[in-house]
């Protein structure tokens, strides 16, 4: 533990001087509905020697690593990685288990990590472990022994990258992982980032004499003008578009950041990793000022339990969201984003709010349109309020965060763990990451966004498109607003209330009143799983 804290402290010190002075999961789209398990080919690469002499495991013993992933996102690349790795290490089979969709994946995590974990995979989407087992708290997933802490692994040599594991990443990105995971552990290493942007059809906007929106007021006015011009759905949106509400919530709540940070005297306090929290006050002139602060989930839950969702703050936030959300299509929150994308590509909707993990597909689709159906298009960030409402900051920060969050399931089998870590290092090397991206794109699969591993770049056109998703990153305030905050049992109710609200069938007061029970049910489940006593100064024990 002392060594781990020393490593984290050194990392934090290297980052803070430059980054803080200079600046303050997800719902994914899947196209298959069945679950499949696939194994890569084990043929040897011509002219390559097996790497066995310096292996940290028993090369005379066969073993299997299982990589469990959600369909379509990097799956082609991951299969290629497995195939090439087995050419180097034929004693280790790598199985790529492809699960059909998000819900099936969460169910798999719950069943496979229950009890003795005999059927548990080895490398998983760590954020989905958090969603399934600890109500989005990845730090607690480490505490409970589900996920392996990679802190010490950062100092290990990566034989596939010519240096230490940490050398593949910027200090800033490693520190962000630490901050987002609760300030104590490294449950994953960064691979890529995702963001959200407004896609626009320039030809249709010009025809309707509408400027490209860049402010919140611009977006409101654009939707109003397009509606008047005859577009039934001026802005196409799918379930991921809830992030637009999160942007509005951040502009309001970030002034309260100091109230929900881990603080000196809290049981979780660690001076070496949380110094950014001390005496913190949000600086509106510096939108990056809070990026290395560490939120206290227990303080969040305490606030949520004491204040509920029917607050004046949330009324203001949802009132603002409604000014654009009322132009969303019917049933947007529960619909498949494929329809929203098709409406934009088919020029039914001039605007689309969408994530970078669909950007490559949209770019390819539009490039493939016949000449008589093609159109000029681009992406834009809605970066500010032109005239901020009372209580809101002027800068609108978007979602810009790590996308493919891959974690290792913890195990006491040292030989097996050494193999898992070695494959992970192979993947998170420059050559491995390039292979994963290139194979994925060549097979028509999605990539989530730009790669953060040093030395990995994409096709120039795709890089230029993805650059439009970069924004000052907002902190996550869904816990305060209730947006996407429901148990599985209550999710249909949440969808119904949200659709009634954005379609104008119920008022904001009625929406919040209806959501109060849904909100508290989720909070109570989160508190129970985490073992919180709602006193941050006392240590808690997460329930098994």
From TrEMBL:
InterPro entries: Bact_solute-bd_prot1, SBP, SBP_1_CS. This is Extracellular solute-binding protein. PROSITE patterns: PROKAR_LIPOPROTEIN (PS51257), SBP_BACTERIAL_1 (PS01037). Residues 1-21 form the signal peptide. Residues 27-60 are annotated as: Disordered. SUPFAM superfamilies: Periplasmic binding protein-like II. The keyword Cell membrane does not apply. It holds the Pfam family SBP_bac_1. Residues 27-37 have a biased composition (Low complexity). Belongs to the bacterial solute-binding protein 1 family. GO terms for biological process: transmembrane transport. Residues 48-60 have a biased composition (Basic and acidic residues). Keywords: Signal, Transport.
